[in-house]
């Protein structure tokens, strides 16, 4: 019997938490392990959304890696001191950096919403793929035992291999998938021109070569 679990959630169900630096709030979409906490630091990975309304320093996350995707607004300039060159982060382009680095953000346009993945690289491997679905159909290999899909804009229908029913998703909705097999795929059908999805693949270090 398959141990696959597929759950849809909305942005309204997210847990809202203040930033460590007190300059804003984050909507926590998912975190593992169950019962873990970003505040205590006993988490393997966390997926969230936030609003960058002003220039300022990012909170530090020692021993973690981060993947940032701007969802709207203007570009963002990130400075990491002597650790890396200044980076210009553009909308819908994933940017990976270390949570150990001191990071300061400067807005290069309007305030922006962003999608964040923070994870422990010693425990898990993570990648983020941005899918401009629109009104087309896309079929993707999930490849990992754990995956997470978030829809920041538009409408689409998603179906995981072996599931009897497709799931309708709209702006702000997410699909959490666990117990996946190496051969499982995700079938997406967009239903609006602005349909955009972010697919996060997650595997424990021992589960992917």
Topology:
Layout: E1 5-9, E2 15-18, E3 25-32, E4 45-52, E5 56-57, E6 65-70, E7 76-79, E8 87-89, E9 95-98, E10 104-107, E11 112-119, E12 124-132, E13 137-141, E14 146-153, E15 155-160, E16 167-170, E17 174-178, E18 185-190, E19 196-204
Task: Describe the structure concisely.
The protein has strands at 5-9, 15-18, 25-32, 45-52, 56-57, 65-70, 76-79, 87-89, 95-98, 104-107, 112-119, 124-132, 137-141, 146-153, 155-160, 167-170, 174-178, 185-190, 196-204.
- CATH domain fold name of the largest domain: Jelly Rolls
Return the domain count.
Answer: 2
Unreliably modeled segments: none
- What CATH architecture of the largest domain do you see? Sandwich
Give the ordered list of helices and strands: EEEEEEEEEEEEEEEEEEE
Number of helices: 0
Q: Give the total of beta strands.
A: 19
What general outline do the C-alpha atoms trace? globular
End-to-end separation: 25 Å
Relative strand content: over 45%
Estimated helix fraction? under 10%
CATH superfamily of the largest domain: Jelly Rolls
Q: What's the average pLDDT?
A: 92
Structural class category: mainly beta
- Under CATH at level 1, the class of the largest domain stands as Mainly Beta
Major β-sheet strand ordering: 2-3-4-11-6-9
Radius of gyration: 17 Å
User: Largest beta sheet, briefly?
Assistant: 6 strands, antiparallel
Structure in words:
With 209 residues, this protein is mostly beta strands. The chain folds into 2 domains: 12-119, Jelly Rolls; 124-204, Jelly Rolls (Sandwich). Helices cover 0% and strands 52% of the residues. The chain has strands spanning 5-9, 15-18, 25-32, 45-52, 56-57, 65-70, 76-79, 87-89, 95-98, 104-107, 112-119, 124-132, 137-141, 146-153, 155-160, 167-170, 174-178, 185-190, 196-204. It starts with a strand and ends in a 5-residue tail after the last strand. The model has no long low-confidence stretch (mean pLDDT 92).
